[in-house]
Design goal:
The complex is a heterodimer of chains A (73) and B (385). Chain A has 73 residues and is mainly α. Helix content of chain A is 58%, strand content 10%. Chain A has one domain. Chain A has three helices and two strands; from the N terminus they run H-H-H-E-E. In chain A, strand 1 and strand 2 form a beta hairpin. In chain A, helix 2 runs antiparallel to helix 3. Chain B has 385 residues and is an alpha/beta fold. Chain B contains ten helices and 14 strands. The longest helix of chain B is centred in the last third of the chain and has 43 residues. Chain B starts with 10 loop residues before the first strand and ends in a 10-residue tail after the last strand. Classes of the chains: A mainly alpha (73), B alpha/beta (385). Chains A and B meet through helix 2, helix 3 and strand 1 of A and strand 7, helix 4 and helix 8 of B.
């Protein structure tokens, strides 16, 4: 359930989560184990976010009243 | 022909102003229209100067002037000399009435405005498939993020069928599943833009679960759709700018976040290592090895002390020995000879009795400074007393 909702996270949410992780990691006196956990989480989130931002150029589509989708040119 | 017609040289016309343009030369161009007809008008700068009010789009006016041909375009138009305001135009009244009604219904309330998502993956666009508006939206969007998905609903954005088409477009894109919708069109006359003042379009925008940016006409054009939409853009280009994030900014931010993650982790590791080293030093200070070394040192000191004591006492003994030897030397038999005593030997043996010699025995007599050789002539025992 948890991993499902994690997958559904938007880029904004992931960026926000990443910011929170970083500020958590910036705190003094953080236990090493906790730091490793946060670091791992953060890096995972960053690469997920990177993946979510698909950098491939996409075609513009045109949708008709009936919901038929075509390439728009 | 027009100029000679007496009637056409002095004409009063009543109508609503549209397509109004104040030209930089001071001339004013507009169209006068009513429900059935329209005529192009021009008011030259000289005549415009005497106007005591400013002409406005949708304004109801009555003007006086003459009809003449405009040779360049081969058309006729009304050359306006004077104009009077007749009260506000019907379209304008209609607009105001609907605006007030929807406002009372709460459709413009900030509380209903959905936030525009910062990162849109798929953008829906309801506009005409031809013209500058759709091109502007696509160009600006793709420039900001080439990876953006755009789904266009080719809508009718002018005339009677426009409202229904726009409503259909909004619903179709909502069902398709886009992150954000831009509804709009390029510039035009008030009539051209009028479909965006329809109640059905307003209702569709309000009901849509996906955030909507309106982009109708130019900066100066305000429509009902603009008030209901979650955000109003002055132009279609600006709508695309609001809708699509600049991907380079996002990627830079992401890179920075990654770098700080690594930096923070390294800092934590460094600090923990430092702590560990500190404790290791403290621990080693308390180590039994130190006590052992200390004891070794004490042992070593003891040994040294012992050695010194031993050698001192040896020295002492030797000293005493030497002293004893010296005293012993003082008791040497040779020393006694100095007092007139002599030491007598025969054949290397001490002579202690007359019985050991006879007449002629060679004797060796030792005195302090030398030896005397002698022969026995006679020997007589001491008389016993």
């Amino acid at each position: 359930m948890n991993s499902m909702s994690e997958k559904k996270k938007s880029v904004e949410e992931m960026l926000k989560g990443l910011e929170e992780t970083v500020s958590e990691l910036e705190k003094d006196d953080i236990p090493l184990e906790q730091a490793f956990k946060l670091y791992e989480e953060g890096m995972k989130l960053a690469s997920l976010c990177d993946k979510e931002i698909e950098k491939v150029e996409k075609k513009v589509l045109s949708i008709s009243e009936g919901g038929k989708v075509d390439e728009f040119s | 022909m027009f100029q000679t017609d007496y009637l056409l040289r002095n004409l009063d016309v009543r109508g609503e102003i549209s397509n109004l343009k104040y030209h930089s030369s001071g001339h004013i161009y507009f169209t006068l229209k009513d429900e059935k007809s329209a005529i192009k008008c021009v008011m030259f700068a000289g005549d415009a100067k005497s106007l005591d009010f400013k002409l406005k789009e949708g304004m109801q006016v009555s003007v006086n002037g003459r009809i003449d041909i405009f040779e360049r375009d081969g058309t006729y138009q009304l050359y306006v000399k004077t104009a009077k305001e007749e009260g506000r135009g019907d379209l304008f009244l209609e607009f105001e009435k609907l605006k007030e009604k929807l406002c009372d219904m709460g459709m413009f309330d900030e509380a209903y405005k959905r936030p525009i998502p910062a990162y849109v993956k798929t953008l829906g666009v309801v506009t005409a498939p031809t013209g500058a508006a759709v091109r502007d939206i696509i160009n600006v969007s793709k420039r900001r993020n080439p990876g953006i998905g755009i789904v266009l609903f080719p809508a009718i954005v002018q005339g009677e069928d426009a409202p229904a088409s726009i409503v259909k477009g909004i619903k179709t894109l909502e069902n398709y599943g886009v992150d954000l919708i831009i509804v709009g069109r390029g510039g035009g006359s008030v009539e051209d833009l009028w479909c965006f003042n329809s109640e059905s379009v307003a209702q569709a925008i309000f009901d849509c679960s996906v955030p909507i940016i309106s982009a109708v006409g130019h900066e100066t054009d305000f429509t009902i759709a603009d008030f209901v939409a979650d955000k109003r853009a002055a132009t279609p280009s600006q709508a695309a700018e609001f809708a699509v994030c600049d991907i380079s900014v996002i990627l830079t931010g992401l890179g920075e976040l990654k770098r700080s993650l690594i930096k923070d982790m390294n800092r934590i590791l460094f600090e923990k290592k430092k702590d560990a080293e500190f404790f290791a030093r403290q621990l080693s200070a308390l180590s039994p090895v130190n006590r052992l070394n200390e004891q070794k040192q004490r042992l070593c000191n003891c040994k040294n002390l012992l050695n010194r004591a031993m050698s001192d006492s040896l020295k002492n003994v030797r000293h005493r020995l030497e002293a004893g030897a010296a005293r012993l030397h003082g008791l040497s038999p040779l020393k006694r000879l100095s007092g007139g005593y002599a030491y007598v030997e025969s054949d290397g043996k001490a002579v202690k009795s007359i019985k050991e010699v006879k007449e002629g025995t060679l004797l060796s007599i030792n005195v302090t400074d030398g030896r005397i050789s002698a022969r026995v002539e006679d020997s007589t025992p001491y008389k016993q007393q």
